[in-house]
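re: ur question from yesterday

yeah so i grabbed the chain u mentioned. its 193 aa long if i counted rite. heres the sequnce exactly as i have it in my notes:
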Amino acid sequence: MKRLFATATFLSLTAGPAFAHVGHGSTASLAAGLSHPLAGIDHVTAMVMVGFWAALKGGRALWVWPAVFIAVMLFGGILGMRGISLPFIEPAIVASVVALGILVALAVDLPVAAGGAIITVFALFHGFAHGSEVTGNVSGMEYMAGFALATAALHLAGIGFAKTMIYFALRLAIRVAGVLCVLTGAGLFTGII
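ran it thru and got these structure tokens back, copy pasting raw so excuse formatting
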């Protein structure tokens, strides 16, 4: 387990830009915000993994972790819209894909507050990346609202799938999905994806 975390840390600190958030289409409407998260594999995998991890934890994590992600993502989006500088955006987003995949693959059982802290960091970078592309007007706010709704839907999809797998005693399927997420992050890091 220590080797896996060391590898993930190395990958995240040395990651080059994935350019997952450059020239991603319109950012001026609710519809654009709703569709944008579904077009980026980095966002889809990270959001679904938040749902998977919350389902594995159960209890309060089922609603706290997704709610924290969305709230902090919106805060990060506002920072990005305001032009505030935040370093290492793309490496942090790739790191979120890898780290969330590891947390799910290993079924890491952290206290709700500790998991929320991890999710807070990743949500800030995801939100900032998208907010930095948006103008600070009503259209930009509509975009962020759509982005938040789509993110919530991805969290719910992850929770629903994971809960179904847990119900049918197929926890291994969730953990395998975590491994696939780690591989996706590695693919983003190397530029294969």
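noticed a couple things. The helical segments are 2-14, 30-39, 41-57, 61-81, 89-105, 112-131, 138-167, 171-190. also Confidence is low (pLDDT under 50) at residues 7-23.
anyway ttyl
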